[in-house]
Amino acid sequence: MTEVRTRIAPSPTGMMHLGTARTAIYCWAVARHFGGKFLLRIEDTDQERSTPEATQVILDSMKWLNLDYDNQGAVVYQMQRLPRYKEVADQLLAKGLAYWDYCTKEELDAMREAQRARGEKPRYDGRWRPERAAALGLVKPEGVKPVLRFRNPDEGEVTWNDAVYGTITVSNKELDDLIIMRADGIPTYNFAVVVDDIDMKMTHVIRGADHINNTPRQINLYRALGVEPPIFGHLPLINGPDGKKLSKRHGSVAVTEYKKAGYLPEAIFNYLARLGWGHGNMEKFSREELARVFDLADCSRAAARMDFKKLAWLNGQYMKEADDARLAGLVKERIAARGGDPESADLVKICALLKGRSQTLEDLADQAMIFFNPYSPVEADIAKSLENGGREALAALLPRLEALPEWKAPGIYAAMKAVCEEQGVKFGVIASPVRVIAVAAAKVPQIDQTLEIIGRDKVLERLRARL
Q1: Would you say residue 203 lies in a domain?
Q2: Which residues are catalytic?
Q3: How many domains is the chain built from?
Q4: Does residue 248 have a known ligand-binding role?
Q5: What is its EC number (predicted)?
Q6: Going edge to edge, which strands form the sheet with 37-42?
Q7: How does pLDDT run across 185-222, given as a tens digit for each residue?
Q8: What stretches of 102-196 adopt beta strand conformation (E)?
Q9: Do 299 and 427 have their domain in common?
Q10: DSSP conformational letter for 446
């Protein structure tokens, strides 16, 4: 059996967007499902817009999402392959399957304008095909650097069985002779990806549905080069909640922005994988589970819609299950950015206490600040909390807390509960003054665990000062 090989091939012209990340996840899942190879290629031929910074963002995003590509240390960069593209272009030229086109930009503009005036589809008319150029008496103009065009078949049609959309057929009469090499020697997208995918032995090319129009052109290039085309699978685009194409107006569209916003990579991985693909009732799953069951045939043909509330909920589920020490490491810098000293309290215990109440790391950091903000109790709140039996309950609680053999939440809770039973008051009567005095916060999570984290010395000192 032929080894299954897939690739993700982003362009380093900006941030890595959610759509590219989802495509990468599906490519990864197909390769892992069949025990094949998943490779990374950087399509950097757009020299005006490609930047090293954007390339690094791609590499960082892949690492963050744990998309382990199999050519680590040997990522393919198109600009390093220019001699190879020229070699293949020369082969097509020698076979009469490509030709030089000397049209100027002005001539091409005039050609298309005339076609529009006649009600025709604007397209290159093939005037520099050798036989037509000879019939028209065209002479190579001085000072014009030509582009190289692929001679597309005039007759017949291109048919492929798309792994998502099924059978698609396009007539060759709908396709003009595409440029494969620019005048500066840089290959065009459609040519470079075919050469790359042949050399990288791709068996599956999975990409967005906006590439469907490119596929018949590329299949004709494969055939001209005597190579069987790979399996193509095109994915519907991701829309915003309003059904329109996902863009910045809907919020963050770059993977890195979700990292900054405090989402966990496994939640983004899970959510994007489920965005346009389904398998029974699976909603939450691991990478390994996805690889086991993934099938391109299960992908929807309709555009998916982002549901930011569902994403936040899913991230919250992963937060609940996350290792406390890992969360502490992830939230540490966020605490510091808010002015807190993350070393001044047990951050692991804080994460254990708060993670079930947090949907993102940002939520977790916000809530954790009750342990790191300067101690500044509100006097009016303290006075109110000591009314209606609060002072008496607090006076009874203090010696019980002082006598605890160890400062642990169960013992703290038992002491508070015992005071309530002795004095016949509700738990809130004792919890309220303890909260506003010991924690100086309007709201706190479980009071016993909160007091354990604050520590015996601080709690007792603050309570004594009010009696």
Answers
A1: yes
A2: 248
A3: 4
A4: yes
A5: 6.1.1.17
A6: 5-8, 37-42, 76-77
A7: 999 999 999 999 999 999 999 999 999 999 999 999 99
A8: 147-150, 157-162, 166-171, 179-181
A9: no
A10: -
